[in-house]
Amino acid sequence: MTRQNCSGREFELRLSKGELNVSKPRTPTKQWAALALVLLVVVCGQSDGYTGPIGGNISVPAHIPKLGDKIWTAPDGADIPYTVAGKIDAEVTIVLVHCWMCNQSFWDRQLPALASEYRTVTLDLPGHGEASSTRSAWTVGGYGEDVAGLIGDLGLSAVILVGHSMGGPVALRAAALLPGRVRGIVAVETLHDADFKFEGEQIEAFLQAFETDFVATCRRFVDQMFVEEDVQPVIDQVLQAGCSPARSEVGTALMRDFGSIDMPAWFREAGVPIRAINAAAPSPTKIEVNRKYADFDAVLVDAVGHYLHMTRPDTFNPLLLEAISEILGGAVEIGDSG
After folding, report:
1. Is the bond preceding 264 in cis, omega lying within 30 degrees of 0?
2. Nearest CA-CA partner of 66 in 89, 43, 37
3. CA distance 261 to 249
4. What's the pLDDT score for residue 206?
5. Under CATH, domain 27-328 is a member of which superfamily?
6. Exposed (0-12), middle (13-18) or buried (19+): which is 6, by Cβ within 10 Å?
């Protein structure tokens, strides 16, 4: 486990088994390796989908949310399953936001570690898990509105958002909508480089691949995200959750939407400290770049892939608790650190 040296170095994805620390060959082509690297930076951290005002009207009922599985209905009628767990009378609530084509069960390995000190909320974003899939437009910004709306209706006033992959940009938008109520964001394998541009002919070819054959493209994409040797059950869980024909409309629309995100603005408008827990490779986390726009720091973990919270929870969970504690302990103003 290492802390990024803030060098902002260029990175080239290499495919040899030794350099990726993978014992079983996955026979990736250069095209699919490039796809994985590019989309890990973007899906994992760029939408005109945001339509609400910063600090928009969010209701705050005076009650403590009850434990258990529930359904919240978004303003557009989308039904969003969510689960409240952990310490019911905790002052701080940890809201965990899943990644592209995943669901709230992907956080199951973190809930026991959080339960003694924090209330937790997990949810299925529309078009994922058991949530509605009838929305007219699928955008990352729209998901930020969903998360903010749920937090508002639950009356939560001290929140830390934890977002994996696509959940990172979603958390940025939710924080911007909830000034004063979100204490910070823990980014998990996301928000690597705020200046990265999701554009160009090669990117367009990748997007067309998802639109042409979503299932095969999704499976190849997911396969590139694992470097660990002993995680086939996790791989199967990810493939089953997201790589099905029923998810193609949502998945391809979101891929298209990433290119419209103004990531530097989203970093700034979130207005809260961001602490990332990212894999050390293949996507470099450019700490100094991100610090231009937010109070940002990152811990990098060696020999893990994109789903490190699922494949290596014994390593990940203490880092998550440490990041939460650091945020609650106070953060520096932008420009005050290094």
Report:
1. no
2. 89
3. 19
4. 85
5. Alpha/Beta hydrolase fold, catalytic domain (3.40.50.1820)
6. middle
